[in-house]
Predict the 3D structure of the following.
Amino acid sequence: MSEEKLSFQAEVSRLLDIVAHSLYSEKEVFLRELISNASDACDKLRYASLTQPELTAGDANFRITLTPDTAARTLTIADNGIGMNRDDLVENLGTIARSGTANFMAALSQKAEAKKDGEKDVSLIGQFGVGFYSAFMVAGEVEVYSRKAGESQGWRWTSDGKGSFTVGESDDAPARGSRIVLHLRDGEDDYLQTYRLQSIVKKYSDHISIPVLVGDDEKPANAASALWTRPKSEITAEQYKEFYHHVGHAFDDPWLTLHWRAEGVLEYTNLLFIPEAKPFDLFEPERKHRVKLYVRRVFITEGPEGLIPAYLRFLRGVVDSEDLPLNVSREMLQHNPMLAKMRTGIAKRVLGDLARKADDADSKADYARFWENFGAVLKEGLYEEREQRDTLLKLLRAYSTHGGTHGDELVSLEDYVGRMKPGQDAIYYITGEDKAALARSPHLEGFRAKGVEVLFLTDAVDEFWLQSVTQYKDHAFKSVTRGGADLANVTAEDKNDETPKAPEDSVADLVALAKLTLGDAVKDVRTSERLRESAVCLVADEGDMDIHLERMLKAHRRLDETSKRILEVNPTHPLIRRLADLAKANGAGGAQGEALADAAWLLLDQARILEGEPLPDPVAFGRRLATFVEKGLA
């Protein structure tokens, strides 16, 4: 078979362009990425050989070798792992076959453009799991010779990183595994020095459980023992950080490191990390975690279903079981009762450690940073896992009106309950997509006037967990956009902030006229206790779906018809009082009655606009508005 010349996927070409023209301050990390990939290849073959021992026949000792050639100016990284065939080479090295690629590239480009003096940061590469391409930071050409374990045909992949690559059969491929040959750029001779390579391996890859051998004499450069099996007292913060970089394919630092051994009926060791930065795949529909499962130091699989709850999928690291059988298949894992018990134990421990961080007054800002990254994911557990619900509610944070007009301080439910006003029984909230827009909602006016705190819930998941979790410490969750948000029993601290009263019959004629005019366009028209500055607002009836949830479901075509809303009018607003006087004096007849009917429709459209809803008849709205302005100017 002759060589084929193929083009990179568009995103890969853009990525390589950024890499090739970058001046990255720590180019040496390319070696970490390639060693990490080689280690993964060995782990995969070790697992496959449990059921197919012939795959490692005659060569059962896994290793990674680094061989510099000063004459040819090449650095070779070789492993005797699982290897790749033609399709693997094209898929793994020619495409980024993962959803979210466009977002990744946009973030990478923005970071690059933000750098001064032409310096571009490619630190996002490893975080997206495409660390192979970092080789082009130091190499003008990269060759990959590979033969997949159990197959006879070897293959060669080569590229200069400028938009295309070639792939074809090769007799020069290793007996098994991969050999990557980097043709170094001018000025990169530093990576041809054995002592330099040894220092990089010691710095970044000492935790790799596969021996890394350097130079012609193949001198070991790493400890070659699984980091998680070592005593915590013997592991430095730097070693933990580098292991996180390896296992998470990440360039950021871990926000929290969790290393413990579970003993008892089940024994398993856990070395888990919470990232400092949000992974790109966090909101992929599959909601898969990336924690690796080992059995007695033998890699089994990454992301086994049932080991880590979906709401903790931001975790990275390893879980090593002493009790699972070595020959366990990925299919058997899905229904394994031991895995279910491990899942419960892991979730309880992780949430417990998060609770300690959340309760620590000195870690308030630190925990807020975690919540901004992963709070939306953590809240999925509120409706998925009843067993951990109480702990998750304690971890929950939200912005609220307590932080001022803009609500710039995260508060806990415990903080909220401690600030509840006399006569207040419920925990009030408002949902939407934008905190700043919610802060301007007319629904908040009465609550602010009485000093009642309202939570801003802006994640899509909020609408769903609130259907399952109805209260916290005997206090019901209540939306301020629902009709039952009663403020009558709440005592304002300042008597001047008490709800202004209007005579009971002062707007009765206007309300009756509006009901008659609007008919089936609304569920009801009534006076409001919550409004202060605004003339009108729309609210959902007590038993109806919340306004934001209904809008969200309709946008995703999960709902065909929307509920009719209640139009509330502010009896103390000058406009409403003037219209009420006209309605009382003239009734619904004559020209004045027609004007009042138009006013009722304008009030409804105004309430719709305030809710961010589209007007069903913009032409009629424009005509009515023009008529009113014309009469007002006459």
